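To: structure subgroup
Subject: Chain for Friday's discussion

All,

I'm putting the inputs and outputs inline so they're searchable in the archive.
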Amino acid sequence: MLRSAALGAAFLALTGPAFAATFTFETAAPVGDDKVVANGTVFLCENTVCKGDMNRKKASVRDCKKIAKKAGEIVSFGTSDSQLNAEEIEECKATARK
């Protein structure tokens, strides 16, 4: 029984953080607040750059659009391993708050 508990704890410790990644987005104009809450994530912002941890592995246009509705026009979005390309950023820009 102790072995099962230890294995369960180890599994939870390894699986929890594995899905979280730090996402960064940059806006065309400075963000009005020091934080943006979008898509269940709090992004801390400084001028035009915001960062927050999301339970995602890859950047998606869908997530970008949700953020753009709150933060404004997005010019870049992603992680160190996964960035939206120019075409995807243009698609995201179409939903930005005005």
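Points worth raising on Friday:
DSSP finds three helices and five strands in the chain.
Residues 21-94 form one domain.

D.
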